[in-house]
Structure prediction request, 121 residues.
Amino acid sequence: MNIEDLHNYCLQKRGVSESFPFDEDTLVFKVMNRMFTLTSLSNWEKGEATINLKCEPGKARSLRERYTAITPGYHMNKKHWNTVHIDGTLSDDFLKEMIDDSYQLIVKSLPKKAQKELESL
Prediction:
């Protein structure tokens, strides 16, 4: 996966927007204004690409134990976020699956009104 693939994959999801709320380097993808994926553009340029993804706590621990490319979320709540190193050891399909999981966790946490609004988009 490259940055363009990540960008296109995230933006094709319902209700997703992109922004740079922290600085000019940190690209954030949000669903209904709630963050589900973020990445550092400069890390991609340096060949050290990572993405931070929300994850159910038990699953987050399990993934970290199983894959060396998945570590506790850098600058995030380590219980709920993983940093995924895009180093070629994880398939694009698996990366997309983790992005989907992150997106769905946020969607499920939205108030019912926002979930209905999202469904109508």
